[in-house]
């Protein structure tokens, strides 16, 4: 492969070619934008399934190994994920109707709190905010429908995801080598960026998400045994909240405890309280064990990345958002270091 020209020569000496390259990249970006969420989802799946691809290549050709991995991801991840999301949406709609019709027994919860010595008028508070609560649930549900879209759009999007997944598994190494060759950046800096982005992807896509999955499944199983309604919706909500530092499963099991006690089941409420506390405390051990104690993702990067990623990239922003924000810091660190010859502050 030919050696890469120095940045001043490539940008100044060939300004016309540089402008053409920028225009081509911009047009390609416009082509990607309508299905950017599905493309990024394919990237996430490719990163997760890359170890499986490497293992399969020991017995099969790269093309057959990639095809087998894609089929496995479709059967084990995509189809179950779509089913869970659809069930969660249906249960959220049921919960929204219950809130709008006033079926929640807020008075019992209020009496429970008052017996503990706290005077609070939850009935009036709930009555004044009943519409807002229902609207918030409807907004969450609508955002899911906006992401999924119509069935033809969903089919096209999933097809793009599968093709991106297949291409990255089969030719991902060639793509990385091509990007390194094209970018007018020093090789040592590129190696540092590649290692940094790999650490970010591991922390956000694998470590952080795996912690959320483990805690959501455990709490969801406990809520199902306790007999709570809308368990799938509560499990998905636990998964999303567990991605956020300092929030976690508290946002689900505390309301569940109040509901059980208000329903006249104090023993089940105490059991869920103890079980939920154990799950929340396990975050202190699971997260360092799976992510490590590096500063690849701090709390601010995770929170800003998740909420900003949801707005910009949709549902896949839960995973990509923190990588984008953390990657920006990584790039700025490398830029400053190459111009000041100083280590990161």
What's the quick description here?
With 345 residues, the protein is an all-alpha fold. The protein has helices spanning 7-13, 15-32, 36-56, 62-100, 106-115, 122-148, 151-182, 187-226, 231-242, 250-262, 266-291, 299-313, 317-340. α4 crosses α9 and α8 packs antiparallel against α13.
Number of helices: 13
Helix content: over 70%
One letter per element, helices H and strands E, the order comes to HHHHHHHHHHHHH
How far is the first residue's CA from the last residue's CA?
36 Å
Q: Report the mean per-residue pLDDT as an integer.
A: 78
Beta percentage is under 5%
Structural class: mainly alpha
Q: Count the E strands.
A: 0
Rg calc:
24 Å
Quaternary structure of the protein? single chain
Major sheet: size, sense and barrel closure? none
Overall body shape: globular
Low-confidence stretches: none
Q: Can you walk me through this structure?
A:
- Helix 3 packs across helix 7 and helix 8 (187-226) packs antiparallel against helix 11.
- 82% of the residues lie in helices and 0% in strands.
- It has helices at residues 7-13, 15-32, 36-56, 62-100, 106-115, 122-148, 151-182, 187-226, 231-242, 250-262, 266-291, 299-313, 317-340.
Mind sketching the topology for me?
Layout: H1 7-13, H2 15-32, H3 36-56, H4 62-100, H5 106-115, H6 122-148, H7 151-182, H8 187-226, H9 231-242, H10 250-262, H11 266-291, H12 299-313, H13 317-340
Helix pairs in contact: 3-4, 3-7, 4-6, 4-7, 4-9, 5-10, 8-9, 8-11, 8-13, 10-11, 12-13
């Amino acid at each position: 492969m030919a050696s890469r020209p120095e940045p001043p020569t490539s940008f100044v000496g060939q300004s016309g070619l540089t402008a053409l390259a920028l225009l081509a990249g911009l047009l390609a970006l416009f082509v990607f934008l309508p299905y950017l969420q599905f493309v990024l989802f394919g990237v996430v799946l490719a990163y997760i399934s890359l170890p499986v691809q490497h293992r399969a290549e020991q017995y099969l050709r790269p093309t057959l190994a990639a095809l087998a991995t894609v089929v496995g991801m479709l059967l084990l991840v995509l189809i179950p994920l779509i089913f869970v999301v659809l069930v969660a949406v249906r249960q959220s709609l049921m919960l929204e109707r219950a809130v709008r019709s006033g079926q929640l027994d807020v008075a019992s919860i209020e009496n429970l709190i008052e017996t503990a010595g706290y005077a609070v008028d939850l009935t009036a508070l709930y009555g004044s905010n009943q519409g807002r609560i229902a609207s918030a649930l409807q907004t969450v549900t609508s955002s899911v429908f906006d992401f999924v879209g119509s069935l033809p759009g969903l089919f096209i999007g999933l097809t793009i995801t599968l093709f991106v997944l297949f291409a990255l598994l089969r030719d991902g190494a060639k793509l990385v080598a091509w990007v390194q060759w094209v970018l007018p950046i020093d090789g040592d800096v590129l190696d540092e960026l590649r290692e940094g982005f790999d650490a970010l992807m591991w922390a956000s896509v694998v470590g952080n998400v795996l912690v959320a999955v483990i805690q959501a499944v455990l709490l969801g199983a406990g809520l199902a045994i306790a007999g709570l309604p809308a368990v799938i919706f509560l499990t998905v909500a636990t998964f999303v909240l567990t991605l956020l530092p300092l929030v976690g499963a508290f946002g689900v099991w505390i309301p569940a405890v109040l509901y059980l006690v208000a329903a006249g089941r104090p023993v089940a409420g105490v059991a869920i309280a103890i079980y939920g506390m154990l799950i929340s405390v396990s975050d202190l051990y699971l997260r360092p064990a799976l992510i490590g104690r590096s500063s690849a993702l701090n709390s601010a990067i995770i929170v800003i990345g998740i909420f900003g990623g949801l707005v910009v990239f949709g549902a896949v922003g839960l995973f990509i958002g923190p990588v984008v924000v953390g990657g920006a810091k990584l790039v700025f660190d490398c830029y400053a270091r190459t111009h000041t010859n100083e280590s990161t502050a």
